[in-house]
Each structure stands twice: as C-alpha cells, then as structure tokens.
Amino acid sequence: YPIADRLSAHLDSDLKRLDFSQLRGDLGATHYLGNYSLVFGGDGLWMDTQIVVPEGRIRDLSGIFVDLGELDGHLSANAVLHGAPTRLSGEVHAELDDVTVYGEHFEAGVATAWMDDGVLTLDDLSLRRRDEAILARGTIGHEFVMNTEILTDGVRLETLDHLQSMAIPASGELVGDVRV
C-alpha cells in the first residue's frame, strides 16, 4: 500500500543514517507531517518516526497496515514509533468523529494504542453515538495474530442504522461480547 500520494521532506545523511525532517505528506484526503529516520547498523535497519495527522480520513490510513473493510470517518492522530521495522515500539493516539463502521454511524470516538517489539496493544478503541458505545481492546501480534475483545454498551436494536433502513420492527438491547 502506498504511504503517500505526495511527500516532501528535508534530507540529511552521513550514509549510515537518513534523517527526513519537516516531512509533509498527503494520502487521499489525509494530510500529515513529522520526522522520520533510518539508521543502517550492524544490527540491521532501525527506524525512528514521529508523525502527526492534524486532519485525515480513516480509509486513507487503515490500508497501510491492515485492510479494515468498510470503515471510514475523520481523524486527528499522532504516532511515535521506533525500532526495527518488524519490531516497532511506541505509542499511537487518535481522535475520531463522523465514523461509519459497516454502515453504522457513530458521532465520535477515540483510539489509544502502543507497540512493544512489534506487538500492537489496542488499549482503548471506543465509538460513541447518543448513549451507545462500542468498545474494543486487545492485541495484534506478529504475523497479524489477533486477540481482541469487542463489547457493546447501551446499543439498542431500534437505533441500528441497518435495521432502520430495512424497516424491520425490532427493539431491545443488543448485548455483544465478541472475541477475535
């Protein structure tokens, strides 16, 4: 997957290290900036990355790492990652709004995660609308091995966008506790 449609940066190098500073990139409708370094050493390649997304689209960024299907919305985010490319460590935080997940709309959300030696721990992914929430937490390990829990809180059948569009008369609380 491409990381940018357009990318510019200032490059400094001593041939053992490439430092890309004042990085500015566009991918679809997403704009980001930051710094990125590559170090070539006896232990292999080392990366050091600081990226800020002041405004962007979830669909533009999700495909870079893993295809999340029908997921879109607005986001602002920051990430600080370092390490060997397959064993990164660091933190990621995103504020989300106007999110659509497989046809269900949520007004707002937040995602907080960290990486340790290439294992992504999703500490909190919460999507909210009215008094309803969907929460997810868990890990995605090496070779994309997942151990994730998805919970619902206050979600009502009569408020599901899918059921409303089909005019199916349903009511009651939707209780979900899914493990992937």
Protein architecture, described:
This protein is mainly beta and 180 residues long. Helix content is 8%, strand content 64%. It has helices at 58-65, 161-166; strands at residues 6-13, 17-27, 30-41, 44-57, 71-83, 89-101, 104-116, 119-129, 132-140, 146-153, 177-179. Strands 1-2-3-4-5-6-7-8-9-10-11 form an eleven-stranded antiparallel beta sheet. It is elongated. The mean pLDDT is 91.
Which structural category fits the helices and strands? Answer: mainly beta
Number of beta strands: 11
Helix-strand sequence:
EEEEHEEEEEEHE
Radius of gyration based on Cα positions? 19 Å
Give the helix level as a range of percent.
under 10%
Number of separate helices: 2
What assembly state would you assign to the polypeptide chains in this entry? Answer: single chain
Instruction: Write out the strand line-up for the largest beta sheet, numbering strands in chain order.
Output: 1-2-3-4-5-6-7-8-9-10-11
- Global mean pLDDT: 91
Measured by DSSP, the beta-strand proportion falls in over 45%
How would the global form be characterised? Answer: elongated
**Are there runs of 5+ residues with pLDDT below 50, and where?**
none
Main beta sheet? 11 strands, antiparallel
* First-residue to last-residue Cα separation: 25 Å
